[in-house]
Amino acid sequence: MNKTKILLAAEFTGLSTGYGNYGRELLSRLLNTGRYEIAEYSSYVYSDAPETESCPWKIFGAEPHKDDENGQRAYDAYPINQFGRLYFEQTALEYRPDVILSIRDPWTEAHVADSPFRKYYKWIYQPTVDSAPQSRDWLAMFAGADAILTYTDWGSKVLK
């Protein structure tokens, strides 16, 4: 039987940031079950970067390789690329995840919600809910996810 393929779309789990720590803990626990094939599509790192070598799962970087001048120009042309917009479709096509987990601010996730490959994966999203009311555009995006998680009971109440 094939394992369910999960792709985390967030900050690189090798970073000591809130999202990095959260993602690392989550993926480590999922990997330890033996039930899933795990990969991450990570901001602030490029594929095959030295800091990814010790990671027990595949890393797809959202940044171009440092020696890729054309990739760097494309990346720099649109600030939202730091959150994965530039290489998302390529990564989804290569990895073909069954599930994409994303944990970030809503304004960083439109490429996950609007992907032409969206019908091929389940999207579990944990947005930051740090204000009320939430933008109608964000609420519409949340409604397109297969599951929404929140950090707090307060965030859950805001979304309900």
Structure characterization notes:
This protein has 160 residues and is an alpha/beta fold. Helix content is 31%, strand content 24%. Strands 3-2-1-4-5-6 form a 6-stranded parallel β-sheet, sandwiched between helices. The chain is globular, with a radius of gyration of 15 Å.
Quote the distance from N terminus to C terminus: 37 Å
Widest sheet, order of strands: 3-2-1-4-5-6
- The total strand number stands at 6
The overall pLDDT, averaged over residues, is 95
Poorly predicted regions are: none
Task: Set down the secondary structure blueprint.
Elements (H helix, E strand, L loop, with lengths): L3 E8 L6 H15 L3 E11 L11 E6 L5 H8 L11 H8 L3 E6 L5 H4 L8 E6 L8 H8 L3 E2 L4 H7 L1
List keywords for this structure.
160 residues, alpha/beta, 6-stranded parallel sheet, 6 helices, 31% helix
What does this entry show, briefly?
The protein is α/β, with parallel strands linked by helices and 160 residues long. 31% of the residues lie in helices and 24% in strands. It has a six-stranded parallel β-sheet, with helices on both faces.
